[in-house]
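Why does residue order matter? Because the sequence determines the fold. Keep that principle in mind as you read this record.
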Amino acid sequence: MQAWSESVRADGRRVALVPTMGALHDGHMALVDEARRHADAVALSIFVNPLQFERPDDLAAYPQPIDDDLALCSARGVDAVYAPLAATMYPAGFQTAVEPGPLGDLLEGAHRPGHFRGVTTVVTKLFLAARPDVAVFGEKDFQQLAIIRRMTLDLDFGIEIVGLPTVREPDGVAMSSRNRRLTPAERRAATAVPRALDAVAQAVSLAAPEGIAAARLTAIADAVVAAEPLARFEHLDVVDAETLEPLTTVGGGRPAVALIAVWFGDVRLIDNRRLA
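Structure:
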């Protein structure tokens, strides 16, 4: 991977990296298209990172259709695919990790201890392997993107980080590899997630000038999800769009984001919505 990247850059061409965990879909292909707008050659990594999973059963169930993924990459004109084995990424005796700092302890980090430590460690290794000029990530994983931006800046990687707005299915559900694990009934029920975010955004738009309490927004989202028997509400957090600082009130022109997590059976879906 390093040799390929160095040869491309030696020719004066820019390299873009699209890190993924495979089970590729149109959302990933949108990342590839965005990467092409920022670079001359696009590499895509496929690696289901065990350090990101706090539950062994979740890791075991994660879809890994590598042949289908490679076919999609070929059809989309991806220049290189990097698909290392776990034993290659984390050989015997591997000890080093990259700490995400305070941003990794908030929100998703509080619900999934160690998750973002796994993210920052693997992304660092992918950056060092692919040597990209630019890397493209989806905004569906809003906190992850913020942490990677911070890490890239703090550690002087010199890599441009590009975020792409969430790509959605026609019914509003965010595209995700985890959607493959939903039963047909659960997939229909998953529309409760964007509907909850729609209700939150509408409440903010109709709020008085002094704003609306974040706790009220959480209650609104919870009520929408509760109306769907197959859904189980986990949380909705309202945070500052830049710092991820939790907000008690939304309004007054301060950019905010609502982050939601909902369970369908043993599948956990996350999503987010920027609030005016």
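The CA atoms of residues 184 and 190 lie 10 Å apart.
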